[in-house]
Automatic annotation (TrEMBL):
This is AcrR family transcriptional regulator. The keyword Glycoprotein does not apply. Residues 32-51 bind DNA. Keywords: DNA-binding, Transcription, Transcription regulation. Residues 9-69 form the HTH tetR-type domain. It comes from Runella defluvii. GO terms for molecular function: DNA binding. Pfam families: TetR_C_13, TetR_N. It comes from the Bacteria.
Amino acid sequence: MNETLSKAERTRQFIIEKTAPIFNEKGYAGTSINDLIQATGLTKGSIYGNFENKDEVALAVFDYNHTKVNDYIKEKLMATENSIERLLVYPAIYRNYLKIPFLRAGCPILNTATEADDTHPLLKEKVTNALSFWKVSVENQVKRGINRGEIKPDTDPTEIAVILISLIEGAFMQAKVTDSLTELKIAMNFLEKIIVSLKD
């Protein structure tokens, strides 16, 4: 934890880090104040002394979980210059999500979206922005690949981004519901074929 933060900021960060996996696994409605107390070892008064309510904790936790996933993906993307290899990072990560501690409970975008679509407008807005960020990121990778002569010039960046996200999130949902990785692996293999077919 960052020592340059104030005691209050460190406590807030501690609460966020300790409760992040619980919110991702149980969802907003399924996470109780007792879960937060148990995860942090803090009293209800101490938690609500740092956050106005559970909503505020949930919003901060979503940002934390989303940033963690983004930073992990970005690190993998930056490890290679080739545009096709960068796009192949996505199926590689999500095929092996059980080996990544903060993804074991599932994708925070999917987990939050399925719950917050109608019941929690602020969380829904966070998810909408996260999806938009992901879409633009993939579109930019495709555009970069076209400019570098690594991806076919007639490739539609938006089409690829929408298909990639839909395949990943749909396969993730099936894996969670069935407790089986079969459909996820099939979808990620198919996504790899789509990406490889973009080579110029």
